[in-house]
Amino acid sequence: MFDWIIALVMGGIIGWVASIVMKTDAQQGIFLNIIVGCVGSILGRLLFGSFLGGGRLRDSAFDPMTLLTAFLGALALLAIVNLVKRGKVR
User: Taking Cα atoms as reference points, which of 49, 44, 55, 46 lies closest to residue 14?
Assistant: First the structure.
């Protein structure tokens, strides 16, 4: 149970930082930041996990490679959403 709470907190922080980098922070609340961070973690593991490493956010939330893959996945997710929504990445 404690692992899930840590994953949600870290997902929220990663989603928040990714939304600041992608300049979508004013449009998102804490709930959407958590979703972006957690889904971005899964997407990052699928896209970048094979060559960057990193585990699941739930299992190794403080591993630097896990945080990096989660952050890159959150950036990729926000880029895809912006591309569909606005027609441009940023």
Answer: 44
